[in-house]
């Protein structure tokens, strides 16, 4: 899925510029942490009604995209 641009925004004035679900202060990292802790999408949506299944899936899409472009530089 490449629709993450529709759902993820980066604004230096919101959460110090961390990627957030558009229209919220919920960061991609927050959503990933909830999923990693074992919360289901339904539980996350119950706690954060501004989210829905599509927005959660797009946070995963954004994280996958971000990981694919990350370069590691080693200092010698």
Automatic annotation (TrEMBL):
<protein>
    <submittedName>
        <fullName>DUF433 domain-containing protein</fullName>
    </submittedName>
</protein>
<dbReference type="InterPro" id="IPR009057">
    <property type="entry name" value="Homeodomain-like_sf"/>
</dbReference>
<dbReference type="InterPro" id="IPR007367">
    <property type="entry name" value="DUF433"/>
</dbReference>
<dbReference type="Pfam" id="PF04255">
    <property type="entry name" value="DUF433"/>
</dbReference>
<dbReference type="InterPro" id="IPR036388">
    <property type="entry name" value="WH-like_DNA-bd_sf"/>
</dbReference>
């Amino acid at each position: 899925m490449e629709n993450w641009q529709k759902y993820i925004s980066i604004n230096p004035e919101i959460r110090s510029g961390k990627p957030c679900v558009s229209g919220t202060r919920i960061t991609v990292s927050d959503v990933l942490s909830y999923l990693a802790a074992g919360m289901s999408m339904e539980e996350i949506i119950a706690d954060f009604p501004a989210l829905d299944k599509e927005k959660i899936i797009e946070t995963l899409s954004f994280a996958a995209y971000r990981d694919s472009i990350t370069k590691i530089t080693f200092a010698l």
